[in-house]
Amino acid sequence: QEQLVESGGGLVQAGGSLRLSCAASGLTFSNYDMAWFRQAPGQEREFVARINWAGGSIRYADSAKGRFTIYRDNAKNTVYLQMNSLKPEDTAVYSCAAKRPALPAGRYDYWGQGTQVTVSS
Asked: Which of 34, 57, 62, 95 is the most exposed place for a label (fewest CB within 10 A)?
């Protein structure tokens, strides 16, 4: 059974850092593009960052550029999101998603349950 499990969330002060992890199981991780999304209370889910199956193509939302870094370790079936210089507006539930490269943009095969990130001012 395919599963994505996020970890690493928590409470941090503004300006601090967190590293989120998303561990995949039940799928051939190296065949999937991976992405991070977030959803704040009362808001729609928004894209944060994406990395292709080989790690050679990366894209960030404008809100993440210069502060967040997505990377993956295919040997560990894990994708990471290093978040620095966190702001209160980064507070949200962060979820990872897996996508076969052949799927249309924006469509994902599998989703994790999410991990809460709270940034205090």
From this structure: 62
